[in-house]
Amino acid sequence: MIRPLLFAMPMRAAARGRVFFPTLIVLAALFFQPWAVSAEPLLFLAEAGYAPYSFANGEQPRGIDCEIVQELARRLDLDVNFKFLPRARMLDELRQGRAQGVVALGYIPELSPLLAYARKQPLRVNQYDLFSHGADRLNYQSPLSLTGKTIALPQGVPLPEELQRSASEEQFKVLRAPTEADCIRLLLMRQVDAFVGQAEATFNLLGKMGMTSTIIAAGTTIARDTSYLAVARNAGVNKPEALARLMELVLAEMLADGTYREIQRRYLVQ
Question: What is the distance in angstroms between the CA of the first residue and the CA of the last residue of the chain?
Answer without folding.
Answer: 45
